[in-house]
Amino acid sequence: MQGEPADLVRDESAPAELLLRVQSLRKSYGPTVALEDVSFDIAPGEIHALLGENGAGKSTIVKLLNGIVQPDQGTMHLGEAPYHPHSISVARQHGVSTAFQELSLLPNLTVSSNLMLPHAKKGRFGMISERQNLEAAEALLTEFGVTDVDPRSLVANLPLASRQRIEIVRALAQRPRLLVLDEPTAALAEPEWLFGLLERVTARRTAVIYISHRLSEVRRLCSRGTVLRNGCSIGTVPLRDVADSKIFEMMVGLSQRNTARSTVAAKQAKPSLQLQNVSGRNVRDVSLTVHDGEILGVAALEGQGQRELFRILAGLEKLEDGQVTTSGTPAKLANPKEALRAGIGFLPEERKTEGIFAGLRTASNISIAIAGKISKLGFIGTQSERRAVADIAAQLDLPVRFQNRAIEALSGGNQQKALLARVMVSGARHLVLYDPTRGVDVGTKQTIYANIRRFVENGGCALVYSTELAELVQLCDRCVVLYGGRVAAVYDGHEIQEERLVAAVTGHGEH
Amino acid sequence: MKGGIPVCSDRKLSPAEAPATARESTPSFLSTDLGKSVVLIALALLMLFAGRLVSPSLGGLNQISAVLVLSSFLIVVAFGQQMVVLIGGLDLSIPSMITLGGLLAFAWTPHGVGELLLVALAVMAVTGAVGMISGLGVTLLAIPPFIMTLSMGIIIYSACLGATRGTPRGQGSETIEALFSGRFLGIPLIILLVAVLAALAILLQSRTTFGRFLYATGTNRQAAYIAGLPVRRMTVATYACSGAAAGLCGLLLVGFSGGATLTMGQSYLLPSIAAVVVGGTAITGGRGSFLSVLAAALLITTFTTVISSIQIEEGWRTILYGAVVLIAILAMRDGTTPLTWRLLPLLRGNKKQQST
């Protein structure tokens, strides 16, 4: 077919001593086969990457390793002993701990309570001692280099990046033999912290399974990686010797698709979305203009005001000062409905809690914003709904059989495509996309890029924030850098380069 | 993505979220709303015929008709309760609203179909408006639904008590009573009326923008707000629905019993919640259809009718009632639908298991 990389499938660098050996795992849920045949192994002190598109089976492997689900066939060995956990706590007793992608912290408890669960320190009379817990939690946070989080604060009040760090610290606090990290840097703006920690734990011969969509990270950290595709392990490769394109090819089964980098310079176009001296919580005096046909990128480290800025535009956060103009008209942004009326289509940060309607069909999820328009006398016909979403769904590669399923049954990448379809059909001309490719696979990313590009070419505009600078380099016509709530730099066309952005987001712009 | 994916290429569905996929991709008949309803109604029939073993007066066609008439009250209030539960709330003011509706219908005594329609609309407007106030309290003042509707219930009950000084004044209405005595094509009018209302309710939930927004808001309030849906208005509307439904129930009860009392709504609170939950509606909101709630209301009414006609002590009756509700909930729960499957072979004497 596309030239199976058969020469890579054989792994010549197999280590002598093994911590984890996984053989021919198979797992199906009803008629859906999640894992078909997965084998790989890990040596002590190794950081081993699991690579694959969304839906390739990575999350199922995480669940199997943690005993959340049990395999139908196949074996796992931890050290020399067979390993078949039937619950998370058994997995922990065996020294396997995990930082989950869908963070497993309890939002209504404090950081310290979360860190101490399930074995809170008991004081006299067996009552939980707040003080001892706090001390222990503080010690853990210091040990693992999290200095800016108060252990007394509620998890719900922390930004996503901090929650992710707490999730990782909680996994590390178990002193595991095998640490599983599922997309640990998805929300981290400064992954160096994690890389430092990983160096420390691997020096103590802890093995790490590292799941990430960011190949550059994976290359930097991992010596070997196992590529998964559709529930099968395609092969374990020493990452040093393999080119990116080869890995993509193994993951997708195709050569990497063409990128969506724009060559069009629509510079003379009219201003489409204009921000004048916009200020609000964490946002100071931001002015920027997105033109018709333009994708404007926003680069920033975590917590530089980008989240609030985007939420101001979405009508979720108060605009304290300044003005937003859409297509030449001043926009009122008191709530999301008004933002939508002003033509702003907002793609929120967390698709699970802010985006999808889990039980509704995918088609209904897409059409919800235009339900009023496609209905007759308040009634929505299945046919008119299908017609209304058919085009956009086809463009985003969402086949009809997906449209009729509940959206919760779709992979994260497909859910994200459906949410993008929702804002694109909503009638909005100004897309405000907060990290549109968060935690989605390579193939889906390309589809999303291509659709944002197509949307602006048809007369819209897009403001895009991304945690991945490389993505902004690939996608945007212009790029602004936010630092401390202000615009720190603006780059145009070919000036957008990853090195420059890196310098600017850390406050070292040449500006 | 297309075509060229070698190996296991047929399923690009996410195995990562496969538990949900599995539930979704095997629309085993029992997990559909229609399937659930069929099971619930089959259980109800089974119960009726089992009753026949105990007493020959049970289990006939007449009794089926009687049960249908009796369940109309629960079906009507369960609709309102379900609307509120779907949006993630709970309505505890239902008993008082029934009483209020009953008192008004009793006082206004309609004569003739035209007046009946008018009175019914007026009663539902009043109780609906009171429900709306609960809804406003829940949305604008952020009072938990539980507290808001409980207080509203107490206020309404006290107002009814104060206004009537304990003895409701009015007359029984022959027109409302005719709903219960009259027949069309041999079927009691009330059954036809409830059937029409139920069909409208199912349409409202499954085919309208209102229904769509209701489920969306119920599953994910935050996402609904961000998507620009009228979250508050939807919430208020469900409480108004519940109030109106309870008011209508009160009016029907006046027709059934020929009078109104202050306690006429008392016995409907828990059954209304039970019908909603047994009918497979998620108590957290967003999932469930009225069809299966209707079936659950039939099952619950059947059970209460059968059990009150056999000779056991009141205490045991209540225990049995609780047990049946619990078992029904377990059997209808989405994740455990297979439980019903596993029980079926046992009922059929293991025939199926042997053959496989």
Account of the protein in words:
The complex is a heterodimer of chains A (511) and B (356). Chain A contains 20 helices and 20 strands. The N terminus of chain A is likely disordered. Chain A is 34% helix and 23% strand. In chain A, helix 15 crosses helix 17 and helix 17 packs parallel to helix 18. Chain A is of the alpha/beta class. In chain A, the strands form four sheets. Chain A has a six-stranded mixed β-sheet with strand order 6-7-8-3-9-10, with helices on both faces. Chain A has four domains: 175 residues, Rossmann fold, CATH 3.40.50.300; 70 residues, no CATH class; 170 residues, Rossmann fold; 70 residues, no CATH class. Chain B is mostly helical. Chain B contains 16 helices and two strands. The N terminus and C terminus of chain B are likely disordered. In chain B, strands 1-2 form a two-stranded antiparallel ribbon. In chain B, helix 3 packs across helix 12, helix 5 crosses helix 6 and helix 8 crosses helix 9. Chain B has a single domain, classed as ABC transporter involved in vitamin B12 uptake, BtuC, CATH 1.10.3470. Chain B is globular, with a radius of gyration of 22 Å. Chain B starts with 17 loop residues before the first helix and ends with a helix.
